[in-house]
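Q: What residues go here?
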């Protein structure tokens, strides 16, 4: 027993922190609550595909012209995959770790985005912000802002774009190549 008291005295008196009365120092690489910045988000759904816990969902409601993004902090495992794959850095892991709530609805966060419509058929095909983001990337890459590709093809749904790019059967010339060898 005396040996135990000597060990305790050598270790010192400060063995624990007085948390929650004294704040805990958080390291820079701490992975806390994911913070979503809707103004930066293009609703591309890269985060929802990368989330191993299925804490992120994205639903498209074409009738109401909306795409809804939602995160469940109850399901999130704070791995940081959503932050890694986001092309616009709209998700960042914060140092916040105290996530206790009294209302279950507080464990969910959502954002809504409008959809762009196809210039040919009128069908909703992508978030408006995603189409604008692609257009900005093409201009930054050196494409002329007056280029016809930035107009119609960017504002078409995939099926109308495919239909516009298909070759008609009368323009296709099929030939068969036959090589002869000396043995023939």
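A:
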């Amino acid at each position: 027993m005396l040996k135990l008291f000597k060990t305790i005295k050598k270790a010192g008196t400060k063995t624990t922190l007085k948390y929650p009365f004294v704040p805990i120092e958080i390291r820079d690489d701490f992975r806390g609550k994911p913070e979503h910045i809707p103004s930066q988000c293009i609703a591309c759904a890269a985060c929802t595909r990368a989330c191993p816990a299925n804490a992120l969902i994205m639903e498209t409601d074409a009738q109401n012209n909306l795409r809804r993004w939602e995160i469940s902090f109850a399901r999130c495992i704070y791995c940081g995959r959503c932050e890694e794959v986001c092309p616009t850095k709209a998700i960042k892991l914060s140092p916040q770790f105290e996530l206790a709530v009294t209302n279950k609805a507080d464990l969910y966060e959502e954002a809504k985005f409008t959809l762009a419509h196809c210039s040919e058929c009128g069908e909703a095909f992508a978030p408006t912000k995603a189409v604008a983001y692609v257009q900005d990337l093409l201009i930054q890459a050196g494409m002329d802002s007056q280029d016809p590709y930035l107009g119609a093809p960017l504002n078409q749904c995939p099926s109308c774009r495919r239909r516009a790019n298909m070759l008609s059967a009368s323009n296709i010339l099929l030939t068969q190549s036959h090589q002869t060898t000396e043995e023939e």
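A: Context that may help when evaluating the design: The first helix runs from residue 2 to 11. The two ends are 103 Å apart (CA to CA).
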